[in-house]
Amino acid sequence: FHEHPLHGCGGLQVASVRSKEVTLRWDSLGYSVTRCHRYNLTLQYRHRPAGAAEAEERQEAAYEARGAAPQHVLRDLTPFTNVSIKLILSNPEGRKESEELLVLTDEDVPGAVPPASIGGSSYEQHIRLSWAPPLQTYGRIRHYEVSFKALSSFDSDVDLSNQSGKVLKAANETAHTFDGLFPGSTYSFTIRAATAKGFGPPAVARFATKISAPVMPTYERQPPINQSDATVSVLLRPARGRGAPVSKYQVVVEEERPRRQTRGTAEILRCYPVPVHFMNSTQLNSHYYFSAELAVSHINKPTPFCVGEDHGDNSMSRAMAAGMLRRTKIAHECARALSGAATKKPEPDHEKQSDHTVKIAGAVAGVLLFIIIFLGLVLLMKKRKLAKKRKETLSSRQEMTLMVNNSQHTTMLSSETSSLVQNHLKQREAEREPPPYHPDPAQMHPAIRVADLLQHITQMKCAEGYGFKEEYESFLEGQSAPWDSAKKDENRMKNRYGNIIAYDHSRVRLQPQDGDKGSDYINASYVDVTRASPYICVCVRAGGRVAGPMQETVYDFWRMVWQENTAAIVMVTNLVEVGRVKCCKYWPDDSDIFGDVSVTLMETQLLSEYVVRTFAVEKRGAAEIREIRQFHFTGWPDHGVPLHATGLLGFVRRVKAKTPPAAGPTVVHCSAGAGRTGCFMVIDIMLDMAEREGVVDIYNCVRELRARRVNMVQTEEQYVFIHDAILEACLCGDTSVPANQLRSVCYDMNRLDPQTNSCPIKEEFRQTLNMVTPTLRVEDCSIALLPRNHDKNRCMDVLPPDRCLPFLITMDGESSNYINAALMDSYKQPSAFIVTQHPLPNTVKDFWRLVLDYHCTAIVMLNDVDPAQLCPQYWPENGVHRLGSLQVEFVSADLEEDVISRIFRIYNHTRPQDGYRMVQQFQFLGWPRYRDTPVSKRSFLKLLYLVDKWHDDGGDGRTLVHCLNGGGRSGVFCSVNIVCDMLRQQRSLDVFHAVKTLRNNKPNMVELLDQYKFCYEVALEYLSSA
C-alpha cells in the first residue's frame, strides 16, 4: 500500500558554490515523508549554457542522496550565471516539488577577446588599437591588459630590443594608441581581459607601422663645387632611412622659380611621381627632369656628382641648357623609401651680366611669341583628333562596360578612362603607396590598357592563337639561376620533382636545427613581384616509397608557415588526380603534432568549388596561438585549366578578403609549385594592377615569376587562361554586396537615369551578364543533337551541353541514356541541382529514371500541368504508377500557402536489394503562366524553406528543378537558393556571380531582366524576414 509523498523535500540549501559547480544539501527523508520505500529524487535546474541564446532546463537523478546528510553536486554550469533549482520527490503514486532555490555561480576567468574584433589603424610612429569585449565574460570585467612587442622591421639597422611594453585599460575602455613606435616595423599585440578570478586567454594580432620618408641631410646654402654653362657639380651626402633602408637615389634637375621662393626660404622636398626624361621635358612642358638614378652603394659617403655629364648605363643625365637658371635636387618618392635632398645654385650677380644679354632679349621674345602661336595651332588640331579618336573608342561597348570599376553598384563613372586615371592619382596622392607592379617600359612587351584588353586578346587568338604561342615560347624554359642547395645529397629527397626546385637566390631558408646541416632547406621560393602581395611557392612532397621523408617534409612545411607568420595557405591541387598522388595530406582531421608544431582543425567550410579549413597552430615554447586558413580549390585539373574562370575569380577574391593585411607571405602550392601556382599568382597580381593602374602586364609578370622559380605557368593553355580570366574579371568587376548595404545598393541600381532612360541593373544584365555568358556551339551539344534524341527535346534551341549531362544508368530495355537535363552546382555542393524540362509524354519514364539514378530526394515544379503544351501529370494521385521496372507509389500530400507537397516512394522491382527511396515533390502554385516572376516573394521563400527543411530532416540528396523548358524559372530558383546560402554563410551576396555560374553550364538560366531583379528583391525579403 503506497500513498502520495506527504510534501516536498525540506531544507534545500547551498553547501558551496564554485564557478562551474554548485553543491546542494537537504534534510534527510523518512518514510513519513516519502510514503514508500521505493522513491526517486531528481534535481531539476534551469540555466543558460555558454554561447546559448536561451536558458535550458535539465534534470539529474540524485543517486547518492540517501543517508543522514544527503547532498548532490551540479557540474558543468556556466560561470557567473543564475541557476534555478528544484528537488523533486516522486514515488509510483505521485510527486512533490521543493521550494525553488536561486543560486548565482561564482566568477571565472573570462574568454578571449574575439580576434576578428581587433582592429588597428597604422601610422608612421603610432598604432591605434581597438577591440571588443569577450563573448563569454564569466563575470564582471575589471580591466584589460594590452602588451606589445616589436617583431621585425624593414630596416635591419634598427634596434628593436626596447620596443615592448604593457598597459592596463579600464573595463569601459576598448581602445589604446601606442606612440613612439618605429616606422616600417611589425608589432605583436596581446590583449587579455580580467575578472576578479584573473586573466583569460590571450588574443594576438599583428600590425605594422607605415614607412616614413628618408631623412635628408641639410643642403641649404651649400654652394656647388663647380659650375659652367652646361654643368654643375654638387656634393651628395647619404640619407638616413626611417622604417626601411634607402633603396636608391634620383637626381632631379628643376627650373628655378624666384617668384615662388625668396632668398633664404628653406627648400621644401617634394615627390616627383612621373620620371620625365630630359628629351621630353620641353615637349611635356615639365619644369623638371630626371638626370640620374644612383644605387645606394654609390652614395655611402659624401660623393661629388656632376649634372650634365654621362654617368653610364644607369644614368639619365644630359647637358643642362646654357643660360637657363636651374637648380639640382635629389628627389625622393615617399612610398618607395627613395632618398632626396636639394642644393640651390647661388643667385647670379646682375651687375656682372653682360650687355649683350639685354640686347638680345627682344629678339628672343619675338621668337618665343612665334613658337607659342605655332604650338597653339598644333595642340588645337591634335586635341580635335584625340577627341574624335576617344569618341570612337568609347562607342566600343562604352569602354568595355566601365572596365575595372571598383564596384558596379556603388560608383557609376561618367567617363571610364579619365575617371579611372583620376581615381588612381587621387589614391596615390592620399596613400603614397607604390604601384603593385611596374615592368621596365623599355621592354618589348609593354603593358596593355584595360580598355584595350578585349581587342588585344582577340588579336592574339587570331590564326589559331599564334600570338599567344609566340609569346609563350619566348619565355626561358628550365633552369635560369643556380640551385646548388636543392641539389645537395641531404636535400634531394625533399624535392618532389628533380627539375622543379628552389633557386638559391630566392629559396626560403628555414631556421637551422642543431646537428642537421640540411635542416634549413625546403623546396619553397619567395615570389615578391609586388610588395603588396608577397607569396611563397612550395612543393609538399608526397613521400614516395619512404615514409620518413614525407613526415619530415610536412614538418618542414609547418615550420615554414610558423616562421614566416603565414595566415593563409592556398592549395590548387587535389590529393589524388588520375590515380596518382599529387600531394600528401599535411593537415589533421582533428589534431596532430608535427615536431614542435601542434595543428588543430577548428572548422571546415565545404563549398561547391573550394574548401576553407581553419586551423589553430601552436609552437612549443611560444606563448601564442595563431589562426591559419587553408583555401583549397578543388576544380583545377593538373596541367589543364578550369572550364570557366568564374569560380576561380571568386576564390581569388575570397582569399584576399580573408587574409589579414599585416600577415606574412601567403603560401601557395599545387603539386610541383609551378603551373597552377603561377596561374593563381599572376591572376591575383594582375587584378590588383588593373584596379590600381588601369593596365595589365601579364607577359612581364610571368617573366618575373620565372626569374624567382622555374617554369612558373607551365603550359600555353594556362597562359591563355590567365588572359581570359583577367578579361572576365575586368568586364564583370567585383559585384559582391555586403548584406548591410544591400538595400541602398538596390536603390541605386534601380534608379533611372533621365538622360539615357536606363538604370545600372539594366546595364549589368543586358550589357555585362549577357556579354560574358558563353555561347554553346553545335559540337558542345552533340549528344542532344543525335537524331534518336530529337523527340526528347521540347525545344531545339534549349539543349544541355555534353559536359553537364546526367547520363541515365537504369536502361530497362531503353536504347538511349539521354535526357534533356543538366547538372548544376549549388553554393555549398557540386552538382547539387539537376535542371530539366517538364517531362514530355514520351519522357515521363526517363524523368523517374533520372530521379532514381541520381539520388534525387526533392522535385521542385515551377510550371502548371497543361496537356496543350505537352505538359502531362507525371505522378500518381493515389496508388502505384508502374513505368517498366520502376514503380512510383503515392504516400501523402499536403498544402501549405502556395506549395503542394507530395511524398512518393520509388523503387526498381527488378533490384529489390537496392530498397526504396522517399521523394518529395514541391509544386509551386504562386507563379502563373502569364507572369515573368512569382506573385509573392514571401511565398517563394517559403518554397525554399520547405525544400531545405526536407533535406535537413533526412531527405539528403539532389534537388531536381523543372519548369517548362528548364531555363528561366529554374534558374531563378537555383540563383535565389545560392544567394540565400551566401547570406547565411558570409553575410554578403553576389547575384551576378550566382547567375553567371549557372549560365556557364546552361545559358538560358534566368532569361529575363525582371527575373534578375527578382533575385535581388527576394534577397532583401530574406534579410527582412531573418
UniProtKB/TrEMBL annotation:
A single MF term (Gene Ontology): protein tyrosine phosphatase activity
Segments forming domain Fibronectin type-III: 109-214
Bilayer topology annotation: Single-pass type I membrane protein
Main location: membrane
InterPro entries: FN3_dom (IPR003961), Fn3_PTPRU (IPR057598), FN3_sf (IPR036116), Ig-like_fold (IPR013783), Prot-tyrosine_phosphatase-like (IPR029021), Protein-Tyr_Phosphatase (IPR050348), PTP_cat (IPR000242), Tyr_Pase_AS (IPR016130)
Transmembrane segments: 360-381
Origin: domain of life: Eukaryota
Species of the source: Hippocampus comes
Enzyme Commission designation: 3.1.3.48
Keyword annotations: Glycoprotein, Hydrolase, Membrane, Protein phosphatase, Signal, Transmembrane, Transmembrane helix
The Tyrosine-protein phosphatase domain, residue ranges: 468-729, 761-1022
Record Gene3D superfamilies: Immunoglobulins, Protein tyrosine phosphatase superfamily
PROSITE patterns registered for this protein in UniProt: FN3, TYR_PHOSPHATASE_1, TYR_PHOSPHATASE_2, TYR_PHOSPHATASE_PTP
Pfam families from the UniProt entry: fn3, Fn3_PTPRU, Y_phosphatase
Protein name: protein-tyrosine-phosphatase
